[in-house]
Specification:
The chain is α+β, with helices and mostly antiparallel strands and about 80 residues long. The protein is built from five helices and three strands, in the order αβααββαα. It is globular, with a radius of gyration of 12 Å.
Length: about 80
Amino acid sequence: MYRVLLALEEPRTLSELWEAANVSTGIYYNTIEKNLLALGLIKYEEKGRSTLVSLTDKGKKLLELMKEIGFEKLTQIR
């Protein structure tokens, strides 16, 4: 989920998001999207013929906090 939030520092189309976060469409729709929407961290908006995904203010705050505490380093420890 962190990779998705990080990829959404700027609004992206769904295909751009999947590529940037290196996540499959199935995993995104079946797991990640549900959780992010339920928590109010992402939003969708139509732009022309494309659907853009972006972080809500709450999502931006969470991402900043995760960066501050070095969450990326924690995800690399496995």
